[in-house]
Automatic annotation (TrEMBL), chain A:
Its cofactor is AMP. One of its GO terms (molecular function) is electron transfer activity. The electron transfer flavoprotein serves as a specific electron acceptor for other dehydrogenases. It transfers the electrons to the main respiratory chain via ETF-ubiquinone oxidoreductase (ETF dehydrogenase). Belongs to the ETF beta-subunit/FixA family. InterPro entries: ET-Flavoprotein_bsu_CS, ETF_a/b_N, ETF_b, ETF_beta_N, Rossmann-like_a/b/a_fold. This is Electron transfer flavoprotein subunit beta. Keywords: Electron transport, Transport. SUPFAM superfamilies: Adenine nucleotide alpha hydrolases-like (SSF52402). Pfam families: ETF.
From TrEMBL, chain B:
The electron transfer flavoprotein serves as a specific electron acceptor for other dehydrogenases. It transfers the electrons to the main respiratory chain via ETF-ubiquinone oxidoreductase (ETF dehydrogenase). It comes from the Bacteria. PANTHER family: ELECTRON TRANSFER FLAVOPROTEIN ALPHA, ELECTRON TRANSFER FLAVOPROTEIN SUBUNIT ALPHA, MITOCHONDRIAL. SUPFAM superfamilies: Adenine nucleotide alpha hydrolases-like (SSF52402), DHS-like NAD/FAD-binding domain (SSF52467). Belongs to the ETF alpha-subunit/FixB family. Keywords: Electron transport, FAD, Flavoprotein, Transport. The lineage of its organism: Bacteria, Pseudomonadati, Pseudomonadota, Alphaproteobacteria, Hyphomonadales. One of its GO terms (molecular function) is flavin adenine dinucleotide binding. Pfam families: ETF, ETF_alpha. This is Electron transfer flavoprotein subunit alpha.
Length: 248, 309
């Protein structure tokens, strides 16, 4: 089966973000960007499915500025077959991303779309579910384990309180959680090979999707700063402090 | 103006999260109705009717609503939204699963994990793992909102709403619930606990996690949490993970033991009232947010603390 894997270019997860002084957003100038960590997991899973013979082709797609091409190259170096870049300088919201992806699905006819459960920049956790709704496909969110069983997909999900297993009729949408796998590092030869793989460039207009935002940012501020705490000498002092504070 | 709250319930009981979501919904304004959907909704509806400030309870009982799967919830809620201006849903794994599906069907952007309702179109939510706080205005006609429970107090229990039946959607759907494997625990639920004791990688093994973290948690009547490193290493179950990708907690007391304090972990606990850190590395970032920090070997300090309480 063909697998479509959407990937997002986001601020690297190790970067300590800084809010712009004019409160218009987060400062992304000269900041290290990487593939969203959850998307690395979905690329890895798709490539493993290909290695196991379950997947025939892995197509990666990214929506964003020209630099999102680097994110696609990373995915290609991990083992994806080809890429689609939907180029736009607008910050595209999950609903518009889902609409664009629905068009890509119509064009590519994958049997499975594997997404990350959330992007670590907007922390929305919406795109996969929205895509499933637009396509009227079943969804397996927060996947911990994934198994193809004929024309069904068995997905074990991380839910509050434990694990839940669902069975989805293919085609289906799956969003991956952290523990599904350990993504590989791309080797130098594979990075070189990835440069030769095809990336098709498109625009939201090509798909006839309006990407203008529904949400307007009023302001972005720093979270309240915690009062600088104190170090205590020993356990007895700690207990005394906690008792005074009424915490124990 | 009317608002729908989707109740969260487990084992025939209404979860505390619902009370918190009702508080958020009442800040939106207008009449607040609760939808109780499930296989055993009949048992839960009377409890929902008691939540303060609720106009009526919609009860949708049926086998298709077992586990509130996304497709069934979409089929149930989307038609109901003709009568509502907004739907408020707890940002639990269940809510996060079905809410965006409803939003997409209504062709609106969802507002995820809000922590404040400013007015009927303006909401506040954390982004970048809680390292920035965004105020957004929604231009959509209807609002689909998930609520971070820890940001709102629970509504009271002095209501007396009427209960109305709503038909459960008929299946079958393209997805099917197969089974679940829940972590058995007598301890308070992590997201609602007043005290949380969390262990990190420094514990070194699941035996040590059991030996050092559990007795302290028991002594305090606390829920047990863990850092991602501890979960990944198999010291604690996935469900214990506190952080950006795990649970968000805001207890009165959070004790972080052998946890360095990575950005992603802090995202899940930095709104706790009092944070205590026990770590032998005095440079650990956790000390920058801890109200009380103890630089010590946890294998010595934790049993001492447990004994002293």
């Amino acid at each position: 089966m063909k697998v479509l894997v959407p990937v997002k270019r986001v601020i690297d997860y190790n970067v300590k973000v800084r809010v712009k002084p004019d409160k218009s957003g987060v400062d992304l100038a000269n900041v290290k960007m990487s593939m969203n960590p959850f998307d690395e997991i979905s690329v890895e899973e798709a490539v493993r499915m290909k290695e196991a013979g379950t997947a025939t082709e892995v197509v990666v797609v990214s929506i964003g500025p020209q630099q999102a091409q680097e994110t696609l190259r990373t995915a290609l170096a991990m083992g994806a077959d080809r890429g689609i870049l939907i180029k736009t300088d607008v910050a595209v919201e999950p609903l518009a991303v889902a609409k664009l992806l629905a068009k890509v699905v119509a064009e590519e006819s994958p049997e499975l779309v594997l997404l990350g459960k959330q992007a670590i920049d907007d922390d929305s956790n919406q795109t996969g579910q929205m895509l499933a709704a637009l396509l009227d496909w079943p969804q397996g969110t927060f996947a911990y384990k994934l198994e193809k069983d004929g024309d069904k997909l068995t997905v074990t999900r991380e839910v509050d309180g434990g694990l839940q297993t669902v069975s989805l009729a293919l085609p289906a949408i799956v969003t991956v959680d952290l523990r599904l796998n350990e993504p590989r590092y791309a080797s130098l030869p594979n990075i070189m090979k990835a440069k030769k793989k095809e990336i098709v460039e498109k625009s939201p207009e090509d798909y006839g999707v309006d990407v203008s935002p529904r949400l307007t940012i009023v302001q972005v501020t720093e979270p309240p700063v915690r009062q600088g705490g104190e170090k205590v000498e020993d356990v007895a002092t700690l207990v005394a402090k906690l008792k005074t504070a009424g915490a124990v | 103006m009317a608002v729908l709250v989707i109740a969260e319930h487990h084992h025939g009981g209404l979860s505390d999260a619902t009370h918190k979501v009702v508080t958020a919904a009442s800040k939106f304004g207008g009449d607040v109705d609760i939808l109780v959907a499930g296989e055993n909704a009949g048992a839960v509806a009377p409890e929902a009717a008691k939540v303060s400030g609720v106009r009526k309870v919609l009860k949708a009982e049926g086998e298709t609503l077992r586990k509130q799967t996304a497709e069934a919830m979409e089929a149930l809620v989307v038609p109901l939204m003709a009568n509502y201006d907004a739907v408020f849903i707890a940002a639990s794994t269940t809510g996060k699963n079905f809410a965006p599906r409803i939003a997409a069907k209504l062709d609106v952007m969802q507002l995820s994990e809000i922590v404040e309702v400013v007015d009927q179109s303006t909401f506040v939510r954390p982004i970048y793992a809680g390292n920035a706080i965004m105020t957004v205005k929604s231009a959509d006609a209807k609002k689909v909102i998930t609520v971070r429970g820890t940001a709102f107090p629970a509504a009271g229990n002095d209501g007396s709403a009427s209960i109305e039946d709503v038909a459960a959607p008929s299946g079958p759907f393209k997805s099917e619930f197969v089974s679940e494997e829940m972590v058995k625990s007598d301890r308070p639920e992590l997201t609602g606990a007043k005290r949380v004791v969390s262990g990190g990688r420094a514990l070194g093994s699941s035996e040590k996690f059991q030996e050092f973290i559990i007795p302290l948690a028991d002594k305090l009547g606390a829920a047990v949490g863990a850092s991602r490193a501890a979960v990944d290493a198999g010291y604690a179950p996935n469900d214990y993970q506190v952080g950006q990708t795990g649970k968000i907690v805001a207890p009165e007391l959070y004790i972080a033991i052998g946890i360095s304090g990575a950005i992603q972990h802090l995202a899940g606990m930095k709104d706790s009232k009092i944070i205590v850190a026990i770590n032998k590395d005095e440079e650990a970032p956790i000390f920058q947010v801890a109200d009380y920090g103890l630089v010590a070997d946890l294998f010595v300090a934790v049993p001492e603390l447990t004994a002293a309480l």
